[in-house]
Amino acid sequence: MKDSDVRQGTLALMVLKTLDVLGPLHGYGIARRIEQISGDLLTVNQGTLYPVLLKLVQEGSISAEWGASENNRKARFYRLTRQGRKQLQSETRSWEQTAAIIDRFFAVKVEDLK
Amino acid sequence: MKAVRRLFRRLMWWTTSARDEDILRAEIDEHIAMQTAENLRAGLSPREARRQALLKFGSVEAIKETYRDERRLPFLETFTRDTRHAVRRLRKTPAFTAAVLLTLALSVGASTAIFGVIDSILISPLPYPRADDIVGISHTASGLPGLPGSLGCSPSMYFTYREENTTFQQFGVWGSGGARVTGIAEPELSRALYVTYGVLDAVGVKPLLGRWFAHEDDTPGSAETVMLTYGYWQRRFAGDTSIVGRTLTIDSTPHTVIGVMPNEFRFQRDPDLILPQRFERNALALGPFGYQCLARLKPGVTIAHANTDAARMLGIWWKAWPMPPGMDSTPFQSVRLAPKIQPLKREIVGDIGTTLWVVMGGLGLVLLIACANVANLLLVRAEARQQELAIRAALGAGWRRIAREMLVESMTLGVLGGAVGLGLAYAALRILVANGPATLPRLQEIGVRPFAAAFALGVSLLSGLLFGVIPILKYAGPRVATALAGRTFSSGRERHRTRNTLVVVQVALALVLLVSSGLMIRTFQQLRSVQPGFTHPEELQILHSMIPDAMAKEPDRVMRMQNEIVDKLAAIPGVLSVGFANVAPMESFLGGGGNPIYAEDKRFAEGQFPPVRQTRKIAPGFFKTMGTRVIAGREFTWTDLYEKRRVAIVSENLAREWWGVPRAALGKRIREAGPADPWREIVGVVEDVYDNGVNVKAPEFAYWPALMDRYIWGSDNGFAVGNGMFAIRSSRTGTESLLKEARQAIWSVNGRQPVFLVTTLKTLYDQSMARTSFTLVMLAIAGGMALILGIVGIYGVISYVVAGRTREIGIRTALGAQPAGLSREFVRHGLVLAGTGAAIGLAAAAGLTRLMSSLLFGVSALDPLTYAAVSALLILAAALASYLPARRAMSVDLVHALQAE
């Protein structure tokens, strides 16, 4: 698995979670939110978010439509679809499982294996 | 699932790419604007705020690139690009492209057309709902020698089968014939389908208007009804929907129209009208067997099961009905009647399959030859591009990419050629349906159906693949770059191996086709050399008309009227003689089938029928008009007829079979079917007439007078031919003016009764050979195409070899080689190729032509003459095709040749 795949995967999960928590949001808002929470992870390239958004739209997890932003600018708002919500649940679960397994692996000491 | 959805969205978006780019652009602008605004709020200078926002966003172009990757379909894009390139390259070489497209279009078109015919006739089900359950019922009679084909059903069987069966869902019997419709336009004889109730229910096609026949419609004595078919309704009544309930005068009786069948309704012999078939139950006997029956099997019933059921019912039928009047009952048992139930489709299609598959095979071979030819052309093309390809490979193009481009090019050729071919096939089948022989079963259903279109597409793709792969293997394989190393203009032997192989294959296939068309030509010759029992059929005008019962009932009066018509016809200027009979020779499709004939001095085994013979009722002058030789004795005279002399004429083969020599038959007495028929004395013996077609043994004939005082199938006061055929021998045959005068002559006696089945004896004669001529023409076309393609192949190879060895020729000429010797060398090369191909072809032909042996007549599938002639023709053509380019080798300009490098 290439590094970018992992990143794109986690980024997608973050997008879904952000939309789940904050409701419909434009690209900039999503980027800001992820930035706030993840610290420096996204500071370099906010633009990488857009291919991820497109992929999610193609998969039907989110939908997009034009709307007005808080300061009355035209912006494309993304919204979690029902299928996206399902995907978020299942991916959250599998992420938690993976995380738990990885955690355990790192917690294992040499003497435990003997 | 997710992947599928993405692919689908990408496909959708692929078509709207420009708009989506704009959306992304706008979205990115908004994003940067928002970030800039925020940076401004944080106190940065406007310039710095924007710079920071851009930096934070990252490379816009890179993002766009990733974005495009996300939404693209690389495979489809490469494919369209390659195709576009291929088309552009092909347009640069119009002559090459045209040659390839023409070759492919003709060969794909021809095979698609025949496949369309096969698909429509043999493969696709009959156009009825759940057509597989519909069966035709006929009977075999192994105890009745000389019976052509099988027996149909008798009216009495209709009742027994309908009432006693346990396996039929619906059942009915039908027959076809002519019906006189009067009161609208010209008197005409419409094609009528007579059905008992159950037939339309069994085929299951619902009427467009009105209703089907019900039980009452075929009950004698109830109101007369009729249904129209769509075509007739459109033609005669312009699709008037108020037709239901109106009356039509058919055979002088008013009939109420109860319904119209839909356009999709098809039935054998393409009827105009559908009339109820009525049987007077109390008057029925076991025979006659002139009707056809069909049934829809109950769900789950097999053919074998139905046959068992029918055999059981035959037992019941046998006991339930009386003998036909005047027939012995003992021989009837020896007939050994057995049911033969088969799918209706097989009954209709008959044995046309062999012919079609043989033709299909021939055209398939042509397609293969065409592919070999195109492959050869592509080889030349690839070779010309070899340097270019090698340079591209050296510059880093992978061989896969180069191969893909070449393959796309040949597939494009294949598909384009196939598309044109499909168009040709479509047009060809339209013409076939419009002009096709009525003897072709399911003619009206023939067309390019989806299956045939898919066949064309598949064949084109496969051909593209076939002729595309050969040059790729040769020139665009993994070693493509090495071509740069061996840069030379004089080509070695090895480089021609592929081309040589292709030519050998072409010649071999062409030989197979030429042999099979040669065999068909020989068959046709053999058929033409058979003396059919009549002379100059092109001079014989045939027409039918009738004296209806309503006009004259007494046999004598009927005959006098027919006699008057004959005299009037004979008085028409340019008419040599006129004959009259119930049907013309080779019109046995109108009915007949024959009956057992007894001879007074021949004993037949107890309880055995004598063999079945054909019979015909004729008036004086019939044989003279037909050109049938009288071998012994004489023709009938009008006195014979009017004095009701009990006389007969027999065919030569019947006379020889019973009495050894024709003369010995004179004075012997014969009769038809049974004791109810009087003995008639043979007064003449005539030459055999090939009534069932010249490829079938001439049937034995008994000729009766057209007027008789007693006849087994006549009424109490005798028999006369009321519905008959006039044969006019004239040099004006086939002209509209003769027909007009003939019609006037007939109408002046019988008062505008329809004149029908107007034809010439030549047409009937040609029809009897229609299948042979069809196969002949198709195979001859295929053979001709194969020969031309094969010759072009040899010519191409030799030309190419000559061109490739120009330098060598120049050097050799400079060193003193004789031009004649050089050109001989090239001709020898051509002949070796042709000879090898011919040898392989002969072996293949010996194996393959056996498949068509049932289509041959008077010639063996291994006819040495055909094989030798075809091989000689091919070798000769090959020698010529090699000589022409070889001659150029002689005229090579020395200086020019040596300068070429």
Describe the structure in your own words.
The complex is a heterodimer of chains A (114) and B (901). With 114 residues, chain A is of the alpha+beta class. Chain A has one domain (3-113): Orthogonal Bundle (Arc Repressor Mutant, subunit A), CATH 1.10.10. Chain A contains 4 helices and 3 strands. Chain A has a 3-stranded antiparallel sheet with strand order 1-3-2. In chain A, strand 2 (62-68) and strand 3 (74-80) form a beta hairpin. In chain A, helix 1 (3-22) packs across helix 3 and helix 1 crosses helix 4 (82-107). The mean pLDDT of chain A is 79. Chain B has 4 domains: 2-72, no CATH class; 143-335, no CATH class; 352-528 and 770-899, no CATH class; 548-752, no CATH class. Chain B is 52% helix and 15% strand. In chain B, the strands form 4 sheets. In chain B, strands 2-3-8-5-7-6 form a 6-stranded mixed β-barrel. In chain B, helix 13 runs antiparallel to helix 17, helix 13 (352-384) runs parallel beside helix 25 and helix 18 (555-570) packs antiparallel against helix 23 (736-750). The longest helix of chain B has 37 residues, at 399-435. Chain B is globular. Residues 486-491 of chain B have low confidence and may be disordered.
Structural class by SSE content of chain B: alpha+beta
Largest sheet of chain B: 6 strands, mixed, barrel
Give the terminus-to-terminus CA distance of chain A: 31 Å
Relative helix content of chain A: 55-70%
What count of helical segments of chain B does DSSP give?
29
Radius of gyration of chain B equals 38 Å
The CATH class of chain A is identified as Mainly Alpha
| Estimated helix fraction of chain B | 40-55%
Largest interface: A-B, 24 and 28 residues
Proportion of beta-strand residues of chain A? 5-15%
- Helices of chain A, by number, come to 4
Instruction: Choose one word for the global shape of chain A.
Output: elongated
What would you report as the Rg of chain A, rounded to the nearest angstrom?
17 Å
What is the level-2 CATH architecture name of chain A?
A: Orthogonal Bundle
